[in-house]
Amino acid sequence: MHSQHIHILWAENYFDIAQVKKVAERVGARPVIVALAPGSQPDMRTFFDMFDIWIRELKNAALENGSRHPASS
């Protein structure tokens, strides 16, 4: 993952979160853990909510990692 400049590790919330975080830390990525279906977290009532949350979390992770992207060095 390092050589491919992958800085975000996307995982569904039914996986072992501690394991996801451990893998992310080991490879230098930021874990993004999301619910997989509407109703599986309080603010995710519809599919539109689900995609809004996914996009928001992915965007936040990308912005946090932006300074580590090789093109921005």
Descriptive terms for the model:
single chain, 73 residues, alpha+beta, two-stranded parallel sheet, 2 strands
How would you describe what is shown here?
By secondary structure, the chain is an alpha+beta fold. The protein has one domain (8-68). Helices cover 41% and strands 14% of the residues. It is built from two helices and two strands. The protein has helices at 17-27, 47-65, and strands at 8-12, 30-34. Strands 1-2 form a two-stranded parallel ribbon. α1 (17-27) links the parallel β1 and β2. The longest helix is centred in the C-terminal third of the chain and has 19 residues, at 47-65. The radius of gyration is 13 Å and the shape is flat. The two termini are 18 Å apart. Residues 69-73 have low confidence and may be disordered.
Topology record:
Elements (H helix, E strand, L loop, with lengths): L7 E5 L4 H11 L2 E5 L12 H19 L8
Parallel strand pairs: 1-2
| Rg, nearest Å | 13 Å
SS-based structural class? alpha+beta
Identify the quaternary structure here. single chain
For the termini, the CA-CA separation is 18 Å
* Number of strand segments: 2
- The helical percent reads 40-55%
Quickly count the domains. Answer: 1
Shape: flat
Provide the low-confidence segments as ranges: 69-73
Determine the strand fraction and express it as a percent band.
5-15%
| Count of alpha/pi helices | 2
Mean pLDDT: 86
One letter per element, helices H and strands E, the order comes to EHEH
What topology, given as strand order, has the largest sheet?
A: 1-2
Q: Tell me the major beta sheet.
A: 2 strands, parallel
